[in-house]
Design brief:
The structure is a homodimer. By secondary structure, the first copy, chain A, is of the alpha+beta class. The first copy, chain A, has 2 domains: about 100 residues, 3-Layer(aba) Sandwich (Glutaredoxin); about 110 residues, Glutathione S-transferase Yfyf (Class Pi), Chain A, domain 2, CATH 1.20.1050.10. The first copy, chain A, is built from 11 helices and 5 strands, in the order E-H-E-H-E-H-E-E-H-H-H-H-H-H-H-H. In chain A, strands 1-3-2-4-5 form a 5-stranded mixed β-sheet, with helices on one face. In chain A, strand 4 and strand 5 form a beta hairpin. In chain A, helix 5 packs antiparallel against helix 8. The two termini of chain A are about 15 Å apart. Chains A and B meet through strand 5, helix 4, helix 5, helix 6 and helix 8 of A and strand 5, helix 4, helix 5, helix 6 and helix 8 of B.
Amino acid sequence: MAIQGEVATGGNDSSANGALCLHSYWRSSAAYRVRIGLNLKGLKYDIAPVHLVRGGGEQHAPAFAALNPQELVPVLQHGQRMLRQSLAILEYLDEMWPQPPLLPATARERARVRALAQVVACDIHPLNNLRVLQYLERDWGVPQPERDVWVRHWIEGGFRALEALLTDSASTGEFCEGHQPTIADCCLVPQVYNARRFGVDMAAYPLIERIERHCLTLPAFDAARPERQPDAPG
Amino acid sequence: MAIQGEVATGGNDSSANGALCLHSYWRSSAAYRVRIGLNLKGLKYDIAPVHLVRGGGEQHAPAFAALNPQELVPVLQHGQRMLRQSLAILEYLDEMWPQPPLLPATARERARVRALAQVVACDIHPLNNLRVLQYLERDWGVPQPERDVWVRHWIEGGFRALEALLTDSASTGEFCEGHQPTIADCCLVPQVYNARRFGVDMAAYPLIERIERHCLTLPAFDAARPERQPDAPG
């Protein structure tokens, strides 16, 4: 499936370097980050859906494990190249197709943006991943309500810190950093989606919510939403 | 405490941009990553120890929470700048002091190195952090042996994938990528330290172990070891 994204404004052409194919799952927030990045760059890409639940999870099938021994999505195929880990993929997109940039101009600003992204990608999301919730359920028999408390605990702690970091900085604008979307926004928006899914009260994080709302007015973010994906349930 | 590191070989001079001070804990593997990076760059820096256990954890004191609302180490102070998140800090060091580089030359190689680093920093370490083990103990009463099984589970899964990624690539050399240390090695070595601490059988990961052994022959890695830190127990 080819997604149009922001081709008109981005003006990047990936054809010289081989086709792009994203191994994705509609509700994976790590895949959602990369979809936003691809769309912001105006790149055309195919989506190869990997169903993370059906039949025990297609990510564990030998064919997919050969692409990524971590047995996790996303994987971005670029010609013969196999790119793994969502933040590494976003940096790769930014290096290969510099316009529009996903990182700001100075080392100080880039450090801030990367740190904001990593609050989500290192300290919130990995604790609430499907594989972790499956471990809690299957190995320890933790019932659903307690698993949901666990998920909310890590989101709320991370969001408290994020809200403080965003509030305390003059760099925060319509987006996490200034007035252009960056990899921080690519991480933030999917995490807010997850937060709502698990019943986090977003009223406690007005700045996060304001930035998320603004991001979703952009077609690049909107087209990346889980419910807009070809593998989303009808 | 000023640490000499690799000043002689690195030849970087941070004085023009303000002093460097790392808020660190001897056994924090995220702080350990940054110590390696600072040493590889040959930068002089002070260490401000933050005791993560004593008195409920100094990272939760208002003075430290003001530096980092996540209440986590490391924080790198560079003059008036406050830098958070170990991977973001390593990228900052590489941008501010480019020699010797912590990332390889091409976008493809950099994507591989960042992905290897993130296998550790996103998918292994965050699950085994002190705050997670404290949650399991205090909120759920999970006893020590089961917490140790949990820790080993995530390390072993991550190391299986890392070993495969390292084995399957012609890029792997004495280090994770070729013959120069990168941010992937900065993440790998502290994670192996953690693995041993929790009783992971490293014989299953010969390539990881070989790279770790080689890294630790370098003064920059050796000086960053937990037991060499000013706040390590005597």
